[in-house]
Design a protein that fits this description.
26% of the residues lie in helices and 18% in strands. The chain is of the alpha+beta class. The protein has one domain. The radius of gyration is 16 Å and the shape is globular.
């Protein structure tokens, strides 16, 4: 594996993107989201280092909190969650879902979620278990962890 160079600049840009709220999403009355999501570790840098993975998880949580603050101001129902995939950090993402004209799939229901599953050690200390209700499900061969919020 090639050495990951420029980490300091990479994370400065990542956090700048999250903090500056550069996501131009329409949270207004006419806006809708059909399983919209974003991957902050698109290239899977977190697969090579737990430290890098944890920093991306922190950024996902910050982005989630930013979206949650904005979504609380709209009057339509929504679903918002962070999904972490054990096997591949590039699949980690923040999702927004609302009623939409594309498909009658709101609220989204994911089958076979285990709400009593232990939280993995690599992110257990990053989350407040009073704030996040973490569930586990298997999709294809991946272990997925999520924390849905429904309004």
């Amino acid at each position: 594996m090639k050495k990951f160079r420029g980490k300091k600049r990479y994370f400065r840009n990542l956090w700048g993107e999250v903090i500056a709220e550069q996501y131009d999403l329409d949270f207004g009355k006419e806006g809708w989201f059909d399983l919209w999501h974003t991957h902050l570790d698109f290239y899977g840098h977190g697969n090579n280092s737990l430290k890098i993975r944890r920093e991306h998880i922190k950024a996902h949580i910050a982005l989630y909190n930013s979206f949650l603050e904005k979504l609380r101001t709209i009057e339509k129902p929504y679903q918002l969650w962070i999904e972490l995939v054990d096997e591949d950090a590039s699949f980690d993402s923040v999702y927004i879902h609302t009623p939409n004209p594309n498909e009658d799939n709101f609220p989204l229901k994911i089958e076979n979620i285990n709400w009593d599953s232990p939280v993995p050690e690599y992110f257990k200390d990053l989350i407040n278990l009073n704030e996040f209700h973490v569930g586990h499900y298997k999709w294809e061969s991946n272990n997925n962890y999520l924390n849905p919020v429904y309004k």
